Here is the input.
Amino acid sequence: MFSRWFDTSDLSPGLVAFLALLAIFFGAFLVYPLLYVFLNAFYQDGQFSTTFFGLMLQNPVQQRALINSFELGIAATIATTIISLPIAYALVRFDFPGKGILGGLMLIPMVMPPFVGAIGMRQMFARFGSVNLLLLDTGIIETPIDWFGGGGFLGVVVLEALHLYPLMYLNIAAGLANVDPSLEESARNVGASGFRLFRTVTFPLMLPGYFAGAIIVFIWAFTDLGTPLIFEYREVVSVQIFNMVTDVHENPIGFALVVLVLLLTLILVYLSKKFFGGRRYEMIARGHVVSAARKATRGQTALIYFALLSVTAIALIPHASVVLTSISDRWFMTVLPSEYTGAYYSQIFDHDLTLLSIKNSLFLSVLSTIIDVVLGVMIAYVLTRRRFPFKDMLDALTMLPLALPGLVLAFGYVAGFSGTWFDVRESPVPLLIIAYAVRRLPYMVRAAYAGFQQTSIALEEASMNLGAGPFRTLWKITLPLVVANLVAGAILSFSFAMLEVSDSLILAVKEQYYPITKAIYALMGRIADGPYMASAMGMLGMALLAGSLIFTGKVLGKKMGELFKV
Here is the structure.
């Protein structure tokens, strides 16, 4: 057992040097920031202590923030479940004309981060926004409705649910597709049917997929920073951490909050891997399993179309709001804009703040993507083609940023590198590049990994038998065969880096270094033209992300869902 674990037959000098480089990179920019936060949260004057956690739990503001964040995560998870479960069931268990098109429509909300959608939703559902004005004009209501009552809680939940239900749908659909239909048929033979069949047989069998999606949604909603800031819903953990960044070394409660978020994330991911990872609940292997999908009747097809198109229409409300706001010259106390203009699209390339932020984001994202491509290709290659000690550890460490909330890593960077060459108060550029690269590296690794898995190793062996070395073989033989996967991973990494929220809001402390998302947040504070210009910038980001997701989906196909699994 141990001889196999420590098999070093593939440990060439080049591989050893690369693994050492990875150890330095991950140690400095992933392990060290997290370890620094842990030590400062649990140690006081050189002694182990939980005093900071006691102070955090005794503080009424922090108590309220914790409760609100848990409520937000639970509510978003329930809402996405209610939306996604029927959609997944309809698309997996029924065949009907246009099924592929409807399945694609379900992923549309992913093209716009909730941070951007919140801008349009405020315009649409404000106290005297379009919806209330329309209802007042038609006489349906006499006084405006507080749609986002509770200080913005409902607004955040709605935005999170409309943005995250595609991720839940992808995981539920994958879990449902893995259910052996013969087991359901056996249950029907003994009298189970309808909801009882689903509750006692189908749902337990698809639980691994559902739980994976639920964890992603809960963690995302619990730690989301941009949407609560736009809705002015500040009594949540993420905003409290954001507020404490400026005095990180004077207020130790910030360390305790970050550690709490980190522990919660790691516990949920561990539970997912421990109890549901890779399980199929001992379904009996029967070779090729026929599809459980059956042809839908005309009535069922009509009902599915109505339900799914209705969900899509509701999910597109934030997109429509942003579009209208971006082309509005004036939109105040009217159902629709009273004047339209495209001037704000040209102004964002003339305005000092917006133009500079676009240049900053392009510069930061290009460099971070180059790092991701180089490291991602090499990591994926050694994981698929080489044997070395602690291979599983490298795989887990590479995928960790996918589960790690952005604000946790950003807070660790601010605290851990304060007073060094990487101090964000001097220049956040190095840490912004590294943060973007670390956070998006899993996308590149998984895209390249999928390509290497689909490429026969026989071609590489033939090349090396003819005298080519491993690097020349990789460059001349393997990479050309997987170039589509690499381009897809690079585009996705670049696009998400351009629209990164948490890292940008926390690390970019000086206006001259603002990326696009920090500039959008700053513009929202301008009363006159701020929301209009912010919406125009949001539209550019939406177009960029939509294009990248479409291209990536065409290249990776059904494997695309693997990119978003923790």
Remarks:
- The chain has two domains: 1-38+343-566, 68-227+303-341.
- Confidence is low (pLDDT under 50) at residues 1-8, 280-289.
